[in-house]
Amino acid sequence: MRQQDLEQLRKEVDGLNVKILDLINERTSLVKKIGKVKEKQGVNRYDPMREREMLNFLKEYNEGPLPNGILDEIFKGIFMSALEIQKDEEKNALLV
Amino acid sequence: MRQQDLEQLRKEVDGLNVKILDLINERTSLVKKIGKVKEKQGVNRYDPMREREMLNFLKEYNEGPLPNGILDEIFKGIFMSALEIQKDEEKNALLV
To answer: Which candidate from B57, B58, B70 shows the least CB-CB separation from A84?
Structure first.
């Protein structure tokens, strides 16, 4: 495989990065909507049971090459970030 | 918004989780290929400059709602995981 092929592979990685980011943004919008519904219902936003279920489902679905241990870490980061965003927004709302 | 709508939103999140995982797996396969090319070239796999470039590109491209600080954390995790997988495989290769 030559340098040119390496460049091609890198372009493919760049394309995937963008697609992954688009989906994480889409996910973030949905989680914000869910947060608003829960707020109206007076329910706690953070739901460790639901998080556990999502992780278990993904690990069962996963056929690699990503190992489940690393899947766990990445998705915990994605789940956590959605909560962080909501916390920040609440903080900003309090400051207004 | 009713409970039924909440269920619908959750199903959409579940669908996105799977799509994100599929893309991360696709990305992992590509990075493994790149690692093999670099190995043949005798070049170090870890390239902090390339990582910086990818992150800068993504942060410029990003229009939210994901804040760039959290984007940074998630993608550093994704980049790191690709390296971890390669390290594990090398370790296993040594054990064979």
So the answer is: B70
Contacts of A61 in chain B (CB under 8 A): 18, 21
Any A CB within 8 A of B73 CB? yes
Residue B61 contacts by C-beta under 8 Å, 6 or more apart in sequence? A18, A21
Q: What is the ipTM of this complex?
A: 0.90
> In chain B, how many domains are there?
1
Q: What angle do CA B27, B86, A68 make, to 5 degrees?
A: 65
Residues B39-56 have a mean pLDDT of: 89
Phi, psi at residue A33, to the nearest 5°?
Answer: -60, -45
Residue range of the domain that includes B46: 3-95
